[in-house]
């Protein structure tokens, strides 16, 4: 892969003035309806992510994706088609005080009543997982978020992963881990009984989130990590560039990668795993002769 490609966090800094809240909220169902709100609602419906009676903890890191997700949830609650409740949660993993202030200010400006709680994850990860901080951080973060969600009486935890995260994860697994595994729109939590993780931004394209963020004039948190930042190259940014390059010759490449997980042909698969057990096509080769 080209060594000159970006291996650190891309930074999003909106060019214009911050728009009034009423304009930002209106834009979600007018200017950005097709690109954002309709796709959010469609993923919730296609994958049956939310039902009447649910209480969803919406996880906010303060980045562009989760700030938008919070506003999309508020819009959905307002529309009242599904009778469910939301709580907004943000775990402070040990952010620099200026970063934390930006998170608080953005949530206040956007009228997102967020519960910010201490996770102290950066400190622990830096101490015990110096070489692979991202993996450990993600695991600890997930646990902390589930705990908080449970404490608030929620049965679902919503994360702000989007369409491009899904595609990049699928490709990362094929290219670097030698397996075919996508990022699922929902899954049951393993260590938190009755709790489900949902990804309602599943169909939303990242460049549309960037367009929206630019339009709002809100400065999201960029690169708030205090452990891995600048220490290691991030394969995800390399994959982003890689996809961007293939897209020049094959504009539908993202759609194809996304669809691949919907169209797995079980007659052309050598092996698979299910509930921790491995299978080979040979195990079933002589069946139904
Ligand atoms: N400190 C945190 N507190 C609460 N939720 C978090 C936190 N960090 C991450 N999340 C949740 O996990 C999702 C994925 O995290 P990741 O670090 O990959 O974010 P990202 O792709 O940079 O998205 P974002 O723009 O929302 O930060 C976020 O969108 C958010 O829902």
TrEMBL record:
Lineage top rank: taxon: Bacteria
* Gene Ontology MF annotations: ATP binding; transferase activity
* Domain tRNA(Ile)-lysidine/2-thiocytidine synthase N-terminal stretches: 55-216
Gene this protein is translated from: ttcA_2
Record keyword Disulfide bond present: no
What is the protein's name according to its record?
tRNA 2-thiocytidine biosynthesis protein TtcA
Alphabetized Gene3D superfamilies for the sequence = HUPs
An example GO biological process term is: tRNA processing
Against InterPro entries, the record matches this protein to:
Rossmann-like_a/b/a_fold (IPR014729), TilS/TtcA_N (IPR011063), tRNA_thiolation_TtcA_Ctu1 (IPR035107)
Among the Pfam families in the record, one is ATP_bind_3
Q: Do the record's keywords include NAD?
A: no
Query: Binding residues for ATP, per the UniProt record?
Result: 59-61, 65, 89, 160, 165
Key words of the record: ATP-binding, Nucleotide-binding, Transferase
